[in-house]
Amino acid sequence: MTTETKDHAELAEIFNKDEDRVDWHDETLWWIRAKRDKSVHQLPEWEALREAASGIKHNVLSNLNAYLQEFESAAKANGIIVHWAADAKEHNEIVHGLLAENKVTQMVKSKSMLTEECHLNDYLATHGIEVIDSDLGERIVQLAGEAPSHIVLPCIHKKKEEIGDLFHMYLGTPSNMSDPQFLTETARGSLRETFLTRKVALTGVNFAIAETGEFVVCTNEGNADMGAHLADVHIACMGIEKLIPKREHLGVFLRLLTRSATGQPITTYSSHFKKPRAGQQMHLVLVDNGRSIQLGREDFRNSLKCIRCGACMNTCPVYRRSGGHSYHTAVAGPIGSILAPNLDMRKYADLPFASTLCGSCSNVCPVKIDIHDQLYKWRQVLVKEGYAPTGKKIAMQVMAKTLASPTLYHAAGKMGRLTIKYAPFAVSNKLNPWYKQREMPSSPEQSFGEWYAKNRKK
Amino acid sequence: MSSREQILAAVKQNQPDLLPLPNVTPFQEITYEDALAQYEAVLTAIGGKMYRVNSMEEVKAIIKGSYNSLEKRVLSLVPELDDIATAAYEINPAAHHLADVELAIISAHFAVAENGSVWVTEELLGHRAVPFICQHLATVVSAKNIEPTMHRAYTRIGAAEYGWGAFIAGPSKTADIEQSLVLGAHGPRSMTVFVLND
């Protein structure tokens, strides 16, 4: 590739250098996928639930304009202050404005992939605001100076020994401590201090209810609640596609979300924020940042149904073996690969190609997004719009020419067979990407065409 | 044009023709033969503990066996259990003075069999922070109030008015370090549910 943007294959190569780590990453995520299966198989109504969730989200997307207004007026009536942000920049400015208004330079934040998408922490850092991420996994990657590599399991790529080193360096634990119980206890103590001293807390939003103007935040750790209930100002940020019509629909989505994510029947805490506490300010920022454009792309609209469970990542053979950072975008994996090109086709042109199109993602998706079909469709759009890498373009042109001409096709086939037989070094070398982590196949003596021509007469 | 108008206009222009909202009422029919047994099995599996009790006296005896309210601060929001709590005090809006609570005892509106959770709203808690800031959480719920699934839970909640409410299912936990489960992430290290036959 000649562009300066990062490329999934190149980044995956870095991850793939440590084979043991790749195997461990692969097995850990597959184990979570297996837990999901075990949990899902206990509900005979699972497929009906997926169908219902998918239908509800289709209805939401088809009536989003009205639901947004219904939500806004209900939330306002509840005493929530509603803000609208057209893009990441405006979102960051709104949050910064609220901090400045309250004369605060420190904030505690629970998990919000939207703020990752908007690069909020970096923006606030340049304005002298210190943000502490309170989800344990996010805190760990924050200390490491990295981005989360998975939307549900932010530090799934890290070994406990590395986490022990980070804690030794930043939280004052003795060196070489890697016991998860001990490390978690250390983080608990450190973050409790943070919760008790921050005046502003920011949280994400899992679902927002148009009918009632409330929003729901799900965590296992309790970090969103610890932050929000102890702060004078609660800021919640959500993408406009997080709306659902009625409270009763939470029954469907809360049953699907965590079973799909980790195999748990529900998260430990499913918090329903409807009104600010007495004396508290509650702000809600509704963010578009490309979502309304994606809504208009018929082939890719369904990606907005996503409830961010991460099941497509856990099951993806490419994600499991290339790691979340190879996707160089806030939301990695199959779903991220269909969301990111909407934001920037040039920058993320590689992502729809980081898939085998096996369809496992679509099979586990709790809201029935046709993920692998969309990956395939994005490839066509990207090539048509001229965003395919030069190497791939040339290869495709050569292949199209060869396949269109019987003479060329037969000659190429013969040459390939002769090469593998007499000059294997010409393909079994590092210049051939197909040779990486693979043996080249042995070649047959003749092609089917030659065999047929010879045997037809008998 | 403000961002609000801009977003709403773009959404209106790009949203597809209206698609129908599915009917979710058939899910109401899902039940368990023994909802309480299901509740206990799930709560235990997610790290909680359940006791079936016949009276508040039984609850007191069990709590007194594990917590000494003279040594550690025990907070009760269940009036019948006030005499096992550390001397009563006002819960003020800041809630930071709750940081030393060892055990908080609250009551719940109902429990949900399929996932081991209880539903609470802020009127039951004194302060929203109570079930998070304590080191251990105990909940009392009536045996009559076990709903089979989340569908029935929301039917029961209906259009109820509340400022804040939550389903709480077991102790706070994390598995962020190499997928090793640790109980007691930021919130309570344990959750005990007393199911009261009344």
From TrEMBL, chain A:
Segments forming domain 4Fe-4S ferredoxin-type: 296-326
Keyword Metal-binding: yes
Record's keyword terms, sorted: 4Fe-4S, Electron transport, Iron, Iron-sulfur, Metal-binding, Repeat, Transport
Classification via SUPFAM superfamilies: alpha-helical ferredoxin, NagB/RpiA/CoA transferase-like
GO BP annotations listed: lactate metabolic process
Name of this chain's protein: 4Fe-4S ferredoxin
GO molecular function: 4 iron, 4 sulfur cluster binding; metal ion binding
Transmembrane domains' residue ranges: none
Origin species: Mucilaginibacter galii
From TrEMBL, chain B:
Segments forming domain LUD: 89-195
Protein name: LUD domain-containing protein
